[in-house]
């Protein structure tokens, strides 16, 4: 927490954004806040997808298909649920459009952590 100045909105628990019913609509609402933004989310790597598939299997949720695009990897589950893992470049571009600057990023095999600073406009 020492590296964050001012107010910050942490989107937790891990990968909360990827488990929303309408994640990009939720993100658009969150980006209207005057806070910095910290996200933890699954990576779009093959290893992360395998880990996610194992996790849902352990939870007793059948994954019927995996959709992979340049922007995300989506797991379509038998209960109608869709779980997203977003590409960090896609998120950076999307969130930057709302007046945020990427302040810090950590990329790992299974997960990514992103911190955005709200750019305050001169009044």
- Largest sheet composition: 4 strands, mixed
Total count of strands = 7
Low-confidence stretches at least 5 residues in length (pLDDT < 50)? none
Strand content: 35-45%
For the termini, the CA-CA separation is 29 Å
Taken from the alpha-carbon principal axes, the silhouette is elongated
The amount of helix comes to: 10-25%
Q: Would you tell me the structural class of the helices and strands? A: alpha+beta
pLDDT average, as an integer? Answer: 85
Radius of gyration: 15 Å
Number of helices: 3
**Order of strands, widest sheet:** 1-2-7-6
What oligomeric state is this?
single chain
* Secondary-structure element order, N to C: EHEHEEEHEE
Describe this structure in words.
By secondary structure, the chain is of the alpha+beta class. The mean pLDDT is 85. The relative contact order is 0.22. Strand 3 and strand 4 form a beta hairpin. The protein is elongated, with a radius of gyration of 15 Å. It has 3 helices and 7 strands.
Task: Outline the fold blueprint.
Elements: E1 8-11, H1 23-30, E2 36-42, H2 46-58, E3 63-68, E4 72-77, E5 82-86, H3 88-96, E6 100-107, E7 111-118
Keywords:
single chain, 123 residues, alpha+beta, four-stranded mixed β-sheet, three-stranded antiparallel β-sheet, 3 helices, 24% helix, 36% strand
